[in-house]
Amino acid sequence: MARTRRYRDGVLEAEDFPAEEIPRHLAEDGVTVWLDLCEPTRDRIAAVADELGLHELAVEDALFEHERPKFHRYDTHCLLNAYAVRLDRRSGRLATAELTAFVTHNALVTVRTRKFDMDAVVRAWDQSSHLAASGVPFLLHGLVDHIVDTHFEAVQALDDHVEQLEDLVFAEHSTNEEMQRRSLAMRRSLVTLRRVVVPMREVITPLLRRDHDIVDDVMQPYFQDVLDHVLRASEWTESLRDLVATIRETQLSIQGNHLNLIMKKVTGWAAVIAVPTAVTGYYGQNVPFPGNGEPWGYWVSTGVVASLSIGLYVLFRRRDWL
């Protein structure tokens, strides 16, 4: 089902009216219309394109999924493509929801997937209804502001996950398998987030250009605030990617140091054990030797084994090899 809204001079007059009435409403003065299509068919988008005069390339971008976030300007309208995101805090996996918007001077048409939370956008419009007199820029701001907010929330949640990873690196009972699993999930989510966050700078910046005449003076500060959030989210995402890589390198370094410590201790104990092995092996030869068959020979060999073993143990302990 298509969702619709009609504003006249900044006042919400009607909503959820038939989409077929949109051309008639657009012919009236002071009217701004919003049309929302959730996973529409090709024929449905084609019908809307004929009514609003949308470019065929823009319609093609709306039909195909996994388009890159972008902003294109055509003769009669503009095309905006972006992704809202949501992070599963338990698994650390990032889910995306694609949206395409057609922007004309008095209409906004959104084409989205079911995962996109359009109700949150509508609530944002209702909460800032005092800006509705700006028309399409008002609707467009509520849309991109919601999208950027989801990016910011995801970055903040990922930052919390990174802090947990940092604690896990130095935890005594953490397992290497758990660290690898969480690090891999984190890096995958950050790669996905970077793919949808970084291009948003190219989406928001053209909206602020005076020569495009898309955003009026009233909405300029609000779009500038959105751009600031985009830049912060982009920089934060990049720093988190570097931090996750550093955490992984730190974990490998700690594992290497721990392995070296174990090898050092094993080597030290092997040296200590080698002394009695050498002495007893020598006296175990089937040939006569000093003290052979005499009690003092047994005690001398035992004393040599004990003294040399204790001496090596004390020496290795002083050098922190054991």
From TrEMBL:
The record's section on Pfam families has: CorA (PF01544)
Against InterPro entries, the record matches this protein to: CorA_cytoplasmic_dom, CorA_TM1_TM2, MgTranspt_CorA/ZnTranspt_ZntB
Q: How is the protein disposed in the membrane? A: Multi-pass membrane protein
Q: Where in the cell is it found?
A: Cell membrane
Q: Does the keyword Transferase apply?
A: no
UniProt GO cellular component terms:
plasma membrane
- Its main localization is membrane
Question: From what superkingdom does this record's organism come?
Answer: Bacteria
Query: Which UniProt keyword terms apply here?
Result: Cell membrane, Membrane, Transmembrane, Transmembrane helix, Transport
Q: Name one GO molecular function term.
A: magnesium ion transmembrane transporter activity
The UniProt transmembrane annotation reads 266-284, 296-316
PANTHER family in alphabetical order = CORA FAMILY METAL ION TRANSPORTER (EUROFUNG) (PTHR46494:SF1)
Stated family: Belongs to the CorA metal ion transporter (MIT) (TC 1.A.35) family.
What protein am I looking at? Answer: Magnesium transporter
